[in-house]
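Hey, can you fold this?
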Amino acid sequence: MRVYAPILLALVLAACGGDEDPQGPSSTIYGTYVVETMDGESLPFAVIEVPDLTVEAVAASYTLNSDMTWTIDYTLRETRLGEVTIEELTDGGTYVVNSGVLTLTDHDGEDYPGTLSGTTLTVELAGFVWVAVK
C-alpha cells in the first residue's frame, strides 16, 4: 500500500513559510481542517480505479500549526481482487500564506497551490481539488 502514498501525498498539502505580516498570519488560520470533498465529490473518493484495483481516499484532515508547519492525516482503502486493506498515513511540511493564497511544501520540496478563505482550505494537488473545512 505504501506505493500509493506518493500519489496521495500529491493529493495532500505541504508548504514552506512566512507571511506578508512580519508577525505571521492571523491565528485564526491555525487548526484542523477536515476534507469534505475532492473534485466536488464527497469522500470516499476513488483516486485510482482500474480493473481489479480501487484505491479510495476515505478520510483526510490537514492541520496548520503556528510554527508554519502542517500535517495531514489520511486514510486509504484499497480493494484488490475483492480483498480490502485500510491504511492510515501521516505526512507534512511547511507552508506560506499571503493574503489568502496558500503555498504548501512537502518534505521533498514539492509545492502545492491553495487558498484559505475563512474556515475553508482549498488545495490543488495532482489534478484534484481538495476542499477542507475547519
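Oh, and this one too while you're at it.
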Amino acid sequence: MKRKPPFRHVLVRLSCLCHHQFMQIYSTNTLKKHHVRCWLVNTGWSGGAYGRGSRIQIAHTRAMIQAALNGALDSVPTVPHAHFGMAVPQSCPDIPAGLLDPRKAWPDPHAYDQAAQNLTRLFAENFKKYEASVSPDVIAQTIRAA
C-alpha cells in the first residue's frame, strides 16, 4: 500500500496558523534570545515504510520527552541527519540506539534513503511557495533536496 507522506505540508500549514513572517520573527528572535533548546520527537512511524514498519512505542516517546525535559540530552553527542540536517542525538536513556537513527531502524537502508530523498524533494518543492517572504536565515536552514 503506497501512502503519501503525511507531513509534507504540515510544517507550512502550522506556520499558517500564525502568519509565517510572525512565526519567523518569533522563532528567530525569541529562541535565540532565551537560548531555547528545541527537540523534534518522532512519535510516528519507524522501521520501514507505511505498512512495513511500526509506530514508535509510547514508552520510547515518553523516555525521549523525559530526557529532553530533564536535560539528559543537553550534553549528548549529535550527528547531522544526512537528509534533513537536524542534529540527531547518539544516545538517549532507555532508548535502543538503533531507534535514534531512522536509517538503521529500517531493514533496507537503501529503501530508507529513497524515501527520505523523496520527502526532502516534496518539502523543498512546497517551500518554494514561501521563499520570497522569509529571511535568508530561514532559507539557509530549510530542508533541501539532494
